[in-house]
Amino acid sequence: MNMVVKTDTAPSRPARLIDDFAPPLMLPGAHKLCAGCGEPAAMRSVVEMIDELGLTARTVGVFGIGCYTSFSPGLDVEMLQALHGRAPSLATGFKRARPDSIVFTMQGDGDMVNEGLQEVIHTAARGENITCIMLNNGVFGETGGHMTATTVLGQRTKNSLEGRDPKKHGYPIRMTEMLAPLEGVAYLARGATNNAGNLFKTRKMIASALKAQDEKRGFSMVEILTMCPTGWFIKTGEAPDYLTDHLGSYHKFGVIKDVTMEAGIARETETVAV
């Protein structure tokens, strides 16, 4: 079959829509985030997995404070807005009141690790049956791009212009690994949005985390590394490689913990590198 389309003359038949690739749970309209931001791809992946797993009617999202908060009015699922850092606690309350619901939080690294570190740690330690999504770009994007607790060594931010220095600023926190030893945690993984392959793997991680919740296995979380060229002081096209070389070299991709239940006995898999 000849797949070459000649462009020197008018087409023999009018154009037609082959398929509508818009995600069913995202309302029409362009987002207002910076060019090259990785958060829209992460948000789309979450709602697509909710739809594919048939969980829409039972799902409630709890949003923290960050650039991603602007998506909350544009998602066709029930939403709650939390105070800065407090999304896991609000999600816990809703889940305990409606245990058959599927509850996820959407937080950035600044919201979760700086503003609300104690919230997510205690939520995980209690084994609350919710799913947390953490968007990690290593900066407080919404408030100007300054350093967070996950900013990697050498990374430039608004208040670390020479790069993060461990002698001045301490070392970055690996949030996912910090939660792994807690007995209440059923599933932990870290994905990324910087290329199609990583996005595909991240979608599988999100699905696994939601399944862990639906099977009532305990706390689950997916950390997603996202691009922020504005906050990184780089050109938009450089952001995917910058994520790999900087954030990705410290915050390693992969499944960190996966506890399955066999005959009522918890069994933990080994870490799988991505």
Order of helices and strands: HEEHEHHEEEHHEHEHHEEE
Give a count of the beta strands, DSSP E runs of length 2 or more. Answer: 11
* Residues in β-strands, percent: 15-25%
Whole-number mean pLDDT: 90
Number of helices: 9
Rg over C-alpha atoms, rounded to the nearest angstrom? 20 Å
- Mind summarizing the main beta sheet? 9 strands, mixed
| Overall geometry | globular
Instruction: Give the low-confidence spans.
Output: none
Helix content: 25-40%
Structural class: alpha/beta
User: What is the distance, rounded to the nearest whole angstrom, between the alpha carbons of the first and last residues?
Assistant: 38 Å
Which structural traits does this protein have?
274 residues, two-stranded antiparallel sheet, 9 helices
Structural overview:
This protein has 274 residues and is α/β, with parallel strands linked by helices. It is 31% helix and 20% strand. It contains nine helices and eleven strands. The strands form two sheets. Strands 1, 2, 3, 4, 7, 8, 9, 10 and 11 form a nine-stranded mixed beta sheet that branches. It has a two-stranded antiparallel sheet with strand order 5-6. Strand 7 (185-192), helix 7 and strand 8 (219-225) form a beta-alpha-beta unit. Helix 1 packs across helix 7 (196-214) and helix 3 crosses helix 4. It is globular. The model has no long low-confidence stretch (mean pLDDT 90).
Short description:
With 274 residues, this protein is α/β, with parallel strands linked by helices.
